[in-house]
Amino acid sequence: MDDPLTRFLDRLEPPSVEVPEAVDRRILGHARWVLLRRRMMPVLAVAAVLLVAVTFGWQRYGGRSLQPGDVDGDGSVNIVDAYVLAVRLRDGSELDRTWDLDGDGHVDERDIEVLGKRSVALR
Amino acid sequence: MRYLAILLVCGLALSGQERRFQAIELFVDSGDTPLAAWQIELTVADASIVGVEGGATAPWLDAPRYDPEALTGGRIILAAFTLTENAPAGRLRIARLHIEATDNASERVVIAAVVAAGPGGERIPLEVECLPYGEK
Asked: What CATH class does B2-132 carry?
């Protein structure tokens, strides 16, 4: 059948192009990489936020316990913290501002008292 | 009011569970390491802790720290530390508890937690023993 419509449609059909196998593999590889990047983006974003938070926390607290009054850094507050603070005050050792438990701007005997009370409190 | 008092007395007499005051001695043993700080949490079942006294040896002669709220129940946390040079080591009586209970309260003492440190603040093991008043 040689009607005008068929001739018109024949003209619209693009000529077949032979794509070399190497080019085909490269296109496929690139498409895979783009897809992987899109999938990994949220994971990378969360990891970046965590990294920033950990770095900030480490700089802020220097690896010390975050629990107020945990002077010896063992993860709990008890009479040993009061004792260690008393020894540091007696010896004139370096004091950390996070040990100012009564919030009066000084680390002193009153903070030892606070620690002593916390140690025996029936929570 | 008078009838209420009579009823109360009769009730106590019939129950046969007379509560009496007892004292419990708290002994610890730190081995060869001098004891610089200690904290002991204990409970006494079916009893009321009514008083705390110090121990028998310096520097533990004063009553240890405790929460005054503990004097209404059977659970208490005792703690003390010393900055004394040459703090004693070995077996020491560090406190005495006064208990109100119906029978031998020392047999119902449960040690819940123990924390102890030597002079450098390092943790040390501490054996704890509760005995009726007068026993050593």
From this structure: mainly beta
Instruction: Check whether B98 has a pLDDT greater than 70.
Output: yes
Residue-number span of the structural domain to which A37 is assigned: 19-62
Reported confidence tier of residue B11, pLDDT bands at 50, 70, 90 = very low
Are A54 and A29 in a shared domain? yes
Please indicate, yes or no, if residue A11 is contained in any of the structural domains. no
Question: Chain A contacts of B83, Cβ < 8 Å?
Answer: 83, 86-87, 90
Chain B residue whose CA is closest to A112? B81
Q: Is the pLDDT of residue A13 over 80?
A: no
Give chain A's domain count: 2
One domain, residues A87 and A57: no
Show the DSSP H helices in chain A as ranges: 4-12, 21-61, 79-91, 109-120
A55 plus A90 within the same structural domain: no
Please answer yes or no on whether A83 and B76 come within 8 Å at the CB atom.
no
pLDDT over threshold 90, residue A55: no
Q: What is the mean pLDDT of residues B114-120?
A: 94
Q: pLDDT tens across B78-91, in order?
A: 999 999 989 999 99
Residue A115 inside a domain? The answer is: yes
Q: Which of B67, B117, B121 sits opposite A120 (nearest CB)?
A: B67
Tell me how many residue pairs between chain A and chain B have CB atoms under 8 A apart.
60
For chain B, domain boundaries = 2-132
Average pLDDT for A38-46 = 90
Interface-testing mutation among A76, A83, A89, with chain B (most B C-beta atoms within 10 A): A83
Nearest to B81 among A74, A86, A121 (CB): A86
